[in-house]
Amino acid sequence: MIGKIAGRLEYRGTDHVLVDVRGVGYIVHVSDRTLASMPAVGGAVALFTELLVREDLLQLFGFPTMLEKEWHRLLVTVQGVGAKAAMAILGTLGPEGVARAIALGDAKAIQAAPGVGPKIAQRVVLELKSKAPAVMAMGANPASTAGAVEDDVIEPTSAPKKAAKPDNSAAAGRAAANAEALSALINLGYAHGDAAQAVAQAAGENPDAVTGTLIRAALKLLAPKG
């Protein structure tokens, strides 16, 4: 299993890149979002990868963070969602957007991904509602939201400057607050699905909210009506 590659970006396609790793070129399929964040040709790149093995095909799919890779692995467990469809969903919504859509039961958000129809989108929401909280909780671990480190890239004598990496600190902080709020609600006795939905809605209304604010807002949403 190839879990991570790091090397030089040799080519950018419409849905894949070619990464040179010590003289060996790997074709890695990536989402639109990941492709947009990558450096210019010649720059150093590192991606977490998932190897798809079929009888007549081997394909590598690449992800900037381990959290995104885990979301991809979860999405492909849904009947009718292949590796490329899962990439399209992640490319359109990102990990946080996917988590929010599933928690809120927002099939239309999933359907916004290219090639994903209403039946598949509804299936994603229904089948993953009970499984998603485990992946959401990964957001509390900084290692899962950090980018792959280019620690084994050999720098040439006249190496081009690396493009600035996107700042993941804000996204990591939001993911951590969401996970902590979710854990607190579960400890209070709320069901996973109900707690996740309330936290996602609260976070959607106030994306910069800290843990305590999210918990209070979620509790108001969970309070009996009437």
TrEMBL record:
Keyword Transmembrane helix in annotation: no
GO terms classed as biological process: DNA recombination; DNA repair
Region (Domain III): 172-226
Keyword check for Metal-binding: no
MF-aspect GO terms: ATP binding; four-way junction DNA binding; four-way junction helicase activity
Alphabetical keyword list: Cytoplasm, DNA damage, DNA recombination, DNA repair, DNA-binding
Cellular component terms per the entry's GO annotation: cytoplasm; Holliday junction helicase complex; Holliday junction resolvase complex
Residue ranges of every copy of the Helix-hairpin-helix DNA-binding motif class domain listed in the record: 73-92, 108-127
Subcellular location: Cytoplasm
Region annotation Domain I: where it falls in the sequence: 1-64
InterPro entries reported for this sequence: DNA_helicase_Holl-junc_RuvA_I, Hlx-hairpin-Hlx_DNA-bd_motif, NA-bd_OB-fold, RuvA, RuvA_2-like, RuvA_C, RuvA_C_sf
Free-text comment on this protein's domains from its UniProt entry: Has three domains with a flexible linker between the domains II and III and assumes an 'L' shape. Domain III is highly mobile and contacts RuvB.
Assigned protein family: Belongs to the RuvA family.
Subunit structure, interactors included: Homotetramer. Forms an RuvA(8)-RuvB(12)-Holliday junction (HJ) complex. HJ DNA is sandwiched between 2 RuvA tetramers; dsDNA enters through RuvA and exits via RuvB. An RuvB hexamer assembles on each DNA strand where it exits the tetramer. Each RuvB hexamer is contacted by two RuvA subunits (via domain III) on 2 adjacent RuvB subunits; this complex drives branch migration. In the full resolvosome a probable DNA-RuvA(4)-RuvB(12)-RuvC(2) complex forms which resolves the HJ.
Stated role: The RuvA-RuvB-RuvC complex processes Holliday junction (HJ) DNA during genetic recombination and DNA repair, while the RuvA-RuvB complex plays an important role in the rescue of blocked DNA replication forks via replication fork reversal (RFR). RuvA specifically binds to HJ cruciform DNA, conferring on it an open structure. The RuvB hexamer acts as an ATP-dependent pump, pulling dsDNA into and through the RuvAB complex. HJ branch migration allows RuvC to scan DNA until it finds its consensus sequence, where it cleaves and resolves the cruciform DNA.
NCBIfam families listed in its UniProt record: ruvA
Name of the protein described by the UniProt record: Holliday junction branch migration complex subunit RuvA
Organism of provenance: Pseudorhodobacter turbinis
